[in-house]
Design goal:
Helices cover 38% and strands 26% of the residues. The protein has four helices and six strands.
Amino acid sequence: MNIYEQWEKALKITEVIRPRIMPLLTYAATELPYVFLAESAVNKDTTVVRQGKVNVEKPTIFLPPNSPQFDGFEMNSSEIRGAVDFLLLRGVFFPSMKYNNQICYLDVYDDKLSGAVKHYKSKMQKAEDVNSGLILGPEDCWQMSVMVFVCQMVSRSAEDDIKKLMSN
């Protein structure tokens, strides 16, 4: 599956069930923890669970506009550059920051996707976790689904970031 097909599939299927409530930090790195759930391609009665975090870091050097740096998305550098160029041509802009994805946990939940959603939603509510996102998406292009989540979090924070930057 090429990047176009992955992106289209991710856009169509990805759903951020529970977004992070806190905005991204304007002047410091922000950790975006997430739980990604996907129907297993091997067994439709199970759910693939990827628990991880994306560290959105301010660059230590000035980067040219529209030059985000992605790491940890299980794609090689040419695939990442191709994905960034592909998204840029479609009007999807990531600020020129570093996005480092770390998978902390990969497992199979022994229930259908709907049962896994209920379980993880309840777990997050009981823990009063307002920092983590709960994402549903296709297993074969989970990276694009995580990028959709990050893009939503960045865009939600943009207006507040601009106000803070202009007031200094």
